[in-house]
Amino acid sequence: MPVLVMKFGGTSVATLDRIRRAAKRVGVEVAKGYDVIVIVSAMSGKTNELVNLVEETSPLFDAREYDAVVSSGENVTAGLMALTLQEMDVPARSWQGWQVPLRTSSAHSAARIEDIPPDNINAKFAEGMRVAVVAGFQGISPEGRITTLGRGGSDTTAVAFAAAFGAERCDIYTDVDGIYTTDPRIADKARKLDRIAFEEMLELASLGAKVLQTRSVELAMRYNVKLRVLSSFEEQSDAAGTLVCSEEEIMESNVVNGIAYSRDEAKMTLVSVADRPGIAAAIFGPLSDAGVNVDMIVQNISEEGRTDMTFSCPTNQVARAEKALQDAKAAGQINYHDLIADTDVAKVSAVGIGMRSQSGVASKMFRTLSDEGINIKVIATSEIKISVLIDRKYMELAVQSLHDAFELEGAA
Ligand code: ADP
Ligand code: ASP
Ligand code: MG
């Protein structure tokens, strides 16, 4: 029978009532003749609660134990979803990641999926089971320990299952009815897109649009998975949502198609480091070894052989970054006068594949921000995006004014 993957995010399984609504949707697809793989997230708020417990217990936690704790939310919803389906007389069974097994790398808290042998689940489908409910976000490392795939990782679980089982489609059910030109929660004028290109979605996701985890888009692009984002709240289960597809399947495109933001950025500045060959390696080597994800980097103009080095990283990695740099200083590998962490910043980005062939986007973006009196602290560009780091208090204003400036509201 054809296979369908249906993923339900945290808000879609937040209560027993919502689990029932989701299960009904699954029942509709089963009735159409699909074998369904349902991927579930933890109930909304649960993962945050678990992360807080870990951080309170151990600020620089051992990532193996972090994974042991934070993966548990999904176990509960997988079991509850299977029970709900059984109550509806739909033959269903739950799986935790290790039972599948969903094999991953050993990179705890940010593991990559390596293999999903379909045999266990297929054997059950062959016996008449119609729905395999799989706990999202988790897997098992080569050492046999539980891993997690990074925040928002259930999206990636879903796409990886769709690829492994040759599913007809991967439907991501969430609390908005599709992918918008920007987060509809902070910009009323955000417009729903019928389609978005993989490349653009990939960039938006990696720049903070958490509607899909970056890695899920990467996998969908690589394995050509038909990926759709739609609401689990709308009555009509055939609601179109947004299709993530290849560029060629999109008729019209604007220069800028989306604005993304990330609230969780911190700006770190090493004041007065020696400007010598190898200094960047001496700074960023220890940071990488400590698992800090450095994003933007700026090295200032050097004066009398010394310079300031600024970089950004996620807010929750500031303590880790500080420790790594202090240790490197104590070991004599680097020398700096001061280390300043600014955690009141946010990153705002404009994304569009049209930027490849059109200039003027950067100047329009900078002018728009300057008209609003917003100071830009760091700039980064790539072929299809421009990102700026600004004071967090201006983040929403920046998103809204850029959305206006690039005329995303009325765009085709
Ligand atoms: P789930 O729990 O279902 O995985 P998430 O909270 O991870 O849901 O993702 C959905 C949220 O993503 C929406 O509620 C919305 O606020 C946010 N979001 C950010 N950018 C966008 C965008 N461009 N389009 C749609 N939603 C977006
Ligand atoms: N529950 C996990 C999280 O909140 C995974 C997910 O929902 O995708 O990050
Ligand atoms: Mg999510």
What are the main properties of this structure?
VC0802-like, six-stranded antiparallel sheet, eight-stranded mixed sheet, binds aspartic acid, 33% helix, binds magnesium ion, 18 strands, Carbamate kinase, alpha/beta, 412 residues, 12 helices, binds adenosine-5'-diphosphate
N-to-C terminal Cα separation, in Å? 38 Å
Q: Which segments are poorly predicted (pLDDT under 50) over 5 or more consecutive residues?
A: none
Main beta sheet: strand number and arrangement? 8 strands, mixed
Strand order of the largest sheet: 3-6-2-1-9-11-12-10
Q: Helix tally? A: 12
Assembly type? single chain
The amount of beta strand, in percent, is 25-35%
CATH C-level category of the largest domain: Alpha Beta
Instruction: State the helical fraction.
Output: 25-40%
| SS-based class | alpha/beta
Principal-axes shape call: globular
Which ligands accompany this protein? adenosine-5'-diphosphate, aspartic acid, magnesium ion
CATH architecture of the largest domain: 3-Layer(aba) Sandwich
The CATH homologous superfamily of the largest domain is termed Acetylglutamate kinase-like
Mean pLDDT figure: 95
CATH domain topology of the largest domain: Carbamate kinase
- Give the total of domains: 2
